UniProtKB/TrEMBL annotation:
It comes from the Eukaryota. This is DUF4371 domain-containing protein. Residues 400-456 form the HAT C-terminal dimerisation domain. Residues 34-189 form the DUF4371 domain. One of its GO terms (molecular function) is protein dimerization activity. Pfam families: Dimer_Tnp_hAT (PF05699), DUF4371 (PF14291). It comes from Ciona savignyi. InterPro entries: DUF4371, HATC_C_dom, RNaseH-like_sf.
């Protein structure tokens, strides 16, 4: 064809011609009967996708099982079939004995060398651990943001490599009740209040949680109830009860000097701490101090057994009880403003109103002026209906009618009373990072510890969502 000047006219004639219509009909008919190459590729891709999803779902189940129990995954030997290939591959082999699909996959693709993908490698395993940990942590953070009010508990302990690990536990209130969630271990170098606070604030800001800072004067400090039961330091005035402390100083004189010298030479310590240590060294190295240390306690006051028991045991115990009680009363004095919450049924309206006004004064940004009236009406409702712990859902429905009471109860329930959750996280730390896994990275430690401690959340993580994130 060369008459391009009249091409539009000729094309219009051709489109309406019998031959063109016949050929177009034949093309449509053939296309309907046969599949194109693209459809073949799509079908093959869909088949491969389903195949690998079945493989990865089994791999993911094993990872969930091991991580939720704090067990080791791999060893240096990563050959399937070897009795020394670790828990991860060993459990997959055990599953293959009862799973025909997994057995065929292992036979076709495992231990075949490069170019044969099996998704049993350590790289895939570590990536799944990281994805699962992020899913669990994001779930916890979303709950915290939804709860609005929360409290934080921190404590530290050295791991197997003598790195101080700061555990962070957050307590908040869900519709079903208060929960305490472990979120992370943070390696720390200093133990001062400002350093611990900075580590905590860095984590909170990094995760996008509403920050509790020094600017919020409503942030309360609560010491651990369990640790408050520990014996307090000896009396500053009853020196007859100081024999054990003086005896420890005499026996460990040289060791104490070495520790003080190490502190004074440590570049990471604060200047004030180093100067204090140097002052103690100078005092202990003076001639009269050393001579005093070398003298024996040959001469002493002669006491009969009854007087010795009174001085060394009875008075000491009484002194410890008094000091402990005073310390605990002072530490929890600020919590007295919430004490009326547990005594609704036994308080008069005037007492409730006075307590509510005190609480309103401290939390004026969170509570409204109608709090005293709401408290009185809520107390009357509790007296008429004998609610118990099993009625939490019914009480939750009532909270829409008592919004300020709901805020008070949530603040009250989110107060961190003890550090038991933090202590339990240390047990997981010792189990996850032991002498066989002492070279574990900090990120992997946090991932495995989170999956082990918060295994309830891990169980509910959607497998398909994890595989989609992996892909």
């Amino acid at each position: 064809y060369c008459d391009w000047k009249h091409a539009p006219r000729d094309l219009a004639r051709h489109e309406s011609s019998e031959s063109h219509i016949r050929c177009l009909s034949m093309y449509i008919s053939r296309k309907a009967k046969t599949t194109s190459i693209c459809k073949d590729f799509e079908k093959q891709n869909e088949s491969d996708r389903k195949y690998w999803c079945k493989v990865l779902s089994r791999v993911l189940s094993v990872i969930k099982f091991l991580s939720s129990r704090g067990l080791a995954f791999r060893v240096n030997n990563e050959l399937v079939g070897s009795p020394e290939n670790g828990n991860f591959l060993g459990i997959l082999e055990l599953m293959a004995e009862y799973d025909t699909f997994l057995a065929e996959h292992i036979q076709k693709r495992v231990n075949k060398g490069r170019g044969h993908v099996s998704y049993f490698s350590s790289t895939v395993c570590e990536e799944f651990i990281d994805i699962l940990a992020k899913k669990v942590l994001n779930f916890i953070i979303s709950e915290i943001k939804q709860a609005k009010y929360y409290s934080v508990s921190v404590d530290s302990t050295p791991d197997i490599t003598n790195v101080d690990q700061l555990t962070i536990v957050i307590r908040y209130v869900l519709p079903d009740g208060p929960v305490e969630r472990f979120v992370q271990f943070v390696p720390i170098r200093g133990h001062t209040g400002s350093q611990l606070a900075q580590n905590l604030l860095d984590f909170i800001e990094d995760k996008g949680i509403t920050v509790i800072t020094e600017h919020n004067h409503l942030a309360e400090y609560i010491p651990c109830v369990a640790l408050s039961l520990n014996l307090q330091p000896l009396s500053n005035t009853r020196w007859s009860a100081r024999h054990d402390a003086i005896n420890a100083l005499r026996k460990g004189y040289q060791a104490i000097l070495q520790v003080l010298q190490a502190i004074s030479d440590d570049e990471d310590e604060q200047l004030q701490t180093k100067q204090t240590a140097k002052g103690f060294i100078l005092s202990m190295e003076k001639l009269e101090t050393v001579r005093l240390e070398e003298q024996s306690r040959s001469e002493g006051t002669s006491l009969d057994s009854s007087s010795r028991f009174k001085v060394e045991s009875y008075l000491l115990i009484i002194d410890q009880i008094l000091l402990s009680m005073k310390t605990r009363i002072a530490a929890y004095d600020r919590l007295q403003r919430f004490s009326f919450v547990a005594r609704f049924k036994t308080m008069t309206n005037s007492e409730i109103q006075e307590s509510a006004k005190t609480l309103l004064h401290h939390y004026s940004n969170d509570l409204e002026e109608s709090l005293p009236e709401e408290m009185i009406h809520f107390s009357a409702l509790l007296k008429q209906h004998n609610f118990n712990r099993e009625c939490s859902i019914e009480i939750q429905n009532l909270m829409s009618a008592f919004p300020n009471v709901s805020v008070v109860l949530r603040i009250y329930l989110c107060l961190m009373i003890s550090n038991c959750s933090g202590e339990r996280s240390f047990s997981v730390l010792k189990r996850v990072k032991n002498h066989l896994r002492s070279s574990m990275s900090q990120q992997r430690l946090n991932s495995l510890a989170l999956l082990c401690i918060e295994n309830e959340i891990l169980t509910n993580v959607d497998t398909r969502d994890v595989i989609k994130s992996f892909a």
